[in-house]
Amino acid sequence: MAVFDFSNSPSDNKEAICTYETFASNESEATEDNPILVLDNKNKKWSHHSVGKFTNPIKRTSFEFEEEDGVVSADILKIDSRFVSLLQWLGENHINVRLSGVNKEDGYAVYKIREIAFGGGTKLSAEDGFLQFMIERLLSSNAPSEEEVDEETLEMGDSMKLTSIQSITDFMNCAGRTLPDNIRLWARRNLAVARSNEVSPEEKRHAQRALSIMMNIKWKNNYFKAIDPKEARRILDEELYGMEQVKQRIIETVIQINRTHTLPAYGILLVGPAGTGKSQIAYAVARILKLPWTTLDMSSINDPEQLTGSSRVYANAKPGIIMEAFSMAGESNLVFIINELDKAASGKGNGNPADVLLTLLDNLGFTDNYMECMIPTVGVYPIATANDKSLISAPLMSRFAVIEIPDYTPEEKKVIFSKFALPKVLKRMGLNASECVLTDEGLDAIIDVFSNTSGIRDLEQAAEHIAANSLYQIEVDKVDSVKVTAEMVRKLFG
């Protein structure tokens, strides 16, 4: 647990002493039994309403009480883990507060904190509204995880974003040569525009925004570490039941990384009926490659400009979805999951969105109209899904290794429903397996009802319906257990 120092005085070289421990609480209301913090009261019992401020003059986590006989300090013994940062903020800004608490055996339990005017008066300052807002928000939140805060991690620059012209300039001076050559030259030109007094404010704004986007992307090389085939198989088994040939084909496609240390020359196109787990497989491949991923839903893209961005000549210009994906990932090596590729040619705007994808898939570089720069795509691995490959153009098909995803057999559906779908729903609803017992006849009836549907989405919804009905009978009819029979299935699903 980090020790926060409420004092800005560098004169004391003593080691900081953390006097408190945190405790997890999800209570929505602070009371004397569920306090915000607990202060030491062994030497003195504190008043119900006490005035002072969080401070640390001797490098101890403490609170200074303003008493009639002077200032008296008391160590902080316990803090609700949700309030650590807030108390730190109060201390760092030397905010005068009034505590409301009760003296107990284990200390002075504080259940209310209010900001007061300077000098210990009772008139509230305008900022108390903010303080009460924060306290209410914290009380309505859940306790943070118990992970220990690493001070070294806090000091790392991962959260740093280059937004100002000065920070971008400093970065270019320090690390500009590490950028790809074309991006380095592009950045210099845009820096000149952003600094210039001879262009419009709008042009300067666009240049600065484009620089911020580009400079915050980690432009990595195209070297990829070898993958572990056993780990790859384990990940696929987690996401997909059965379909051994499909799993083998996927591993065969990506295993070439182990020899070349570059991405495969072709992406993966997963073709099959709806609900067969194509998207789950795509996410699994991203996990295998240990790359961030982004999705492109071609069914929602009607105009190529959504992918390529708009020209800076427009006041409301912005980058396209592909460039924004690089920005969100924060690096140039990522997996593009292109959902419903068979709908890419159905654009309703000017041009065909499918034509834009060709430039992304060729790994020769992608140009965004807003950025006005060719983006290296050697670290991009495309994984597409489709229901009907006959609707995909030949040029697009030639960029992929096609893997057919067959529908599940009735026997596979039985296993998936009884071993995965239903137990998952029962666990989520808080039901025990003994409270919802699926008979063999009931399982056969479920598979029969959904025999004409592809995939397992309908089966997952059926599991949801059965579990919900069972819970209803247990809670309303007060039965101990529900037996899912064929008769019950036919009654629920007609």
Q: Could you explain the architecture of this structure?
A:
With 494 residues, this protein is α/β, with parallel strands linked by helices. The chain has four domains: 21-139, no CATH class; 160-215; 229-404, Rossmann fold, CATH 3.40.50; 410-493, Helicase, Ruva Protein, domain 3. 38% of the residues lie in helices and 18% in strands. It contains 18 helices and 16 strands. It has helices spanning 84-92, 128-139, 151-154, 165-175, 181-195, 201-215, 229-239, 244-254, 257-260, 278-289, 305-308, 321-329, 353-361, 394-397, 410-429, 440-449, 457-476, 486-493; strands at residues 21-23, 37-39, 49-55, 62-67, 70-80, 97-104, 107-115, 267-271, 293-297, 334-339, 366-368, 373-375, 380-386, 400-404, 436-438, 482-484. The strands form four sheets. It has a six-stranded antiparallel β-barrel. A hairpin with a 2-residue loop joins β4 and β5. α7 runs antiparallel to α10 and α15 (410-429) packs across α17. The protein is flat and about 90 Å long. The two termini are 58 Å apart.
- The percent range for helix content is 25-40%
How many domain regions? 4
Q: Rg, please?
A: 31 Å
Shape: flat
In whole angstroms, the N-to-C terminal distance is: 58 Å
Which CATH-level-2 architecture of the largest domain? 3-Layer(aba) Sandwich
By secondary-structure content and strand pairing, the structural class works out as alpha/beta
What name does CATH use for the topology of the largest domain? Rossmann fold
Tally of helical runs:
18
Largest sheet: 6 strands, antiparallel, barrel
